[in-house]
Design goal:
eight-stranded mixed beta sheet, 18 strands, alpha/beta, single chain, five-stranded parallel beta sheet
């Protein structure tokens, strides 16, 4: 019987995975053992089932991008990855494969929140039965609760399972439902939020391990779903360092994108929703003192676009603010590169902030509110980039203080170096691979017993 062995300072443990070819392993560390106690010996090629409420073909949100990068990079590392995910919105046609990952989409009914939830659960279950029932895997990795609830009962009880927790589903739903004019959510929002919270807790409880992208998300998980038995591991998100990189000539890029040459260019890329704080950014722009002309680019789509456009006009900023709409993936690096500063005005629940590390990888400093995981990223780089709170006055002050850094080429190089050394999807995939291997090595009874040492 073939196996995976870890040598520790205390003992040798042979953990069996039958019938898998060996390939060299780099820096594998089972969670919780301590780097000084583990020396990698082998890595196996795994058969990984991934299940999600989002699609990697529609990466307008951060969780979809995480899903896409995890799947494709696990495939690049030699693992067999099959992904069952939600049918994308609009007329986007699902592919059978994506960068070596086998894709299968399940249909959903988006008429209202309840139909969306029920068809997500049963659509995922039906698609699993139709296309995956007779297949086998070494480990399952779930993103989001609804599809997880649909598929988990169909899996063998002995199959190891991990859950990637992005944010509390119930809280996320409630925050998105808030009407910015009435400053309250529609009737029924609390009920749906409570149902999502229960669904998420059940999906989490059915898993052998939980992954989070930040220490903030770890704390949020504990506050929302205290008492879970599964161990929690933090693996920070990443950035594609080849796709997001500094431009050789930023002035030429302004001409190419038809942007003002002499203005200070600010950029934000966000879903246009209440918790993203775009209205805070607009009000902060009005507070900036006289100085160089400021031109603010706002990328992204969402239900608040009309409200935000009206607010910009009301504040007298119509000629200084440009709403770009959805920025295609191949164009996104250009806007990061051309910006003098990227601004992240989030109000709450920033589970990681992929846009932050993407901007830094392009050499663009990021000024942000201290919401969620953002301080974990920015404070080690430069504390001046972080506002003291999420209000417009603090954000305006931080923007003003960061102006000298905006065109400081040495600091822009430092931003790039920081992204290179601290955040990359390759680093993320390597640690994710280690957690998948460690999960397969645990006893299938779902009792979380650390190996004796």
């Amino acid at each position: 019987q073939e196996g995976v062995a870890w040598r520790t300072n205390h003992s040798v443990s042979e953990l069996s995975l039958a019938g898998r070819p060996f390939v060299p392993c780099r820096n594998f560390q089972p969670p919780g053992w301590g780097a000084e106690a583990v020396e990698p010996v082998n890595r196996v090629r795994l058969r990984v089932l991934m299940v999600a409420d989002v699609s990697p073909l529609q990466t307008t949100g951060g969780s979809a991008r995480v899903l896409k990068e995890q799947a494709r990079r696990l495939a690049e590392r030699g693992h067999t990855v099959q992904l069952l995910c939600r049918q994308p919105r609009g007329d986007l046609l699902p592919d059978d494969t994506l960068d070596g990952v086998s894709l299968r989409h399940y249909p959903v009914n988006r008429a209202h929140s309840m139909s969306y939830a029920t068809t997500s659960i049963f659509g995922a279950r039906t698609s699993f039965r139709d296309y995956f029932q007779d297949q086998s895997w070494d480990v399952a990795l779930f993103h989001q609760p609804l599809s997880a609830l649909g598929v988990q009962p169909e899996l063998p009880s002995s199959l190891p399972r991990l859950y990637c927790f992005h944010s509390p589903a119930g809280t996320e739903y409630r925050l998105r439902a808030v009407d910015p004019k009435k400053r309250r959510a529609p009737m029924g929002t609390r009920l749906v939020s409570a149902m999502l919270r229960r669904a998420e807790r059940r999906a989490l409880g059915n898993c052998d391990g939980i992954l989070v992208l930040s220490d903030f998300s770890r704390r949020l998980l504990g506050e929302t779903h205290h008492g879970l038995a599964a161990p929690v591991v933090t693996i920070p998100g990443g950035v594609d360092l080849d796709h997001f990189r500094p431009a050789p000539d930023r002035l030429a890029l302004r001409d190419r994108l038809n942007l003002p040459k002499d203005a200070l260019l600010l950029l934000t890329v966000r879903d246009l929703e209440q918790r993203m704080g775009i209205d805070t950014l607009l009000k902060a722009l009005r507070r900036l003192p006289e100085g160089p002309p400021v031109h603010c680019l706002i990328g992204g789509t969402g239900p608040l676009r009309r409200f935000l456009e009206e607010l910009a006009t009301h504040l007298g900023l119509a000629d200084r603010v440009q709403f770009l709409g959805y920025i295609p993936e191949d164009q996104l690096p250009l806007y990061y590169q051309v910006a003098d500063l990227f601004v992240l005005p989030t109000r709450s629940h920033e589970g990681f902030g992929l846009v932050t590390v993407e901007a830094l990888a392009c050499g663009t400093p990021v000024v942000a509110t201290p919401a969620g995981a953002t301080p974990e990223i920015l404070v080690p780089l430069e504390a001046r980039l972080l506002a003291s709170d999420t209000g417009e006055s603090s954000l305006a002050s931080s923007l003003q203080e960061a102006l000298p850094l905006a065109r400081d080429e040495a600091f822009r190089r430092r931003c790039r170096t920081y992204a290179e050394t601290s955040y990359s999807w390759d680093r993320h995939a390597e640690r994710l691979e280690g957690e998948l291997l460690a999960c397969t090595a645990r006893t299938p009874s779902r009792h979380f017993v650390r190996l004796a040492g």
